[in-house]
Write a structure and sequence with these properties.
This protein has one domain. 61% of the residues lie in helices and 10% in strands. The protein has a two-stranded antiparallel ribbon with strand order 1-2. A hairpin with a 2-residue loop joins strand 1 and strand 2. The longest helix is centred in the last third of the chain and has 15 residues. It is elongated, with a radius of gyration of 17 Å.
């Protein structure tokens, strides 16, 4: 049994019974899902709860850049709507400008990812 201050949301899908603790904020829950490789689950959770799925991709890109997770950056960029690409480009340029003097290799990887998406 959960302590009185803890709340949980239970749901069942084809893989089994799942529990979500509701003492997490929406942002924290989505951030954890994204960073631990469950982008699809974050997307489904947004759909089920009526949360903004469009913002999820930009949020994922921001997290991927912040934590230097290329495995998060690539799918986030691939899922952007056309009107979100300018915001993403600005985020990537800021990242490259601040990262290049310190970690040139990482900055170059981000440039290559961005260039691939333009084709």
């Amino acid at each position: 049994m959960l302590p009185p201050q803890e709340q949980a949301l239970y749901f069942i899908d084809s893989t089994g019974l799942h529990v979500l603790f509701t003492n997490f904020s929406q942002e924290r829950l989505l951030q954890n899902l994204i960073m631990f490789g469950h982008q699809r689950s974050a997307d489904v959770l947004c759909t089920l709860n009526g949360w903004d799925r469009r913002a999820l991709r930009i949020h994922a890109l921001k997290l991927g850049l912040q934590y230097r997770q290329l495995s998060v950056v690539q799918p986030a960029l691939a899922g952007l709507d056309v009107d979100q690409q300018w915001e993403a480009t600005d985020m990537m340029l800021d990242f490259i400008a601040t990262t290049a003097p310190v970690d040139r290799d990482m900055a170059q990887k981000i440039v290559r990812i961005g260039m691939r998406l333009q084709h």
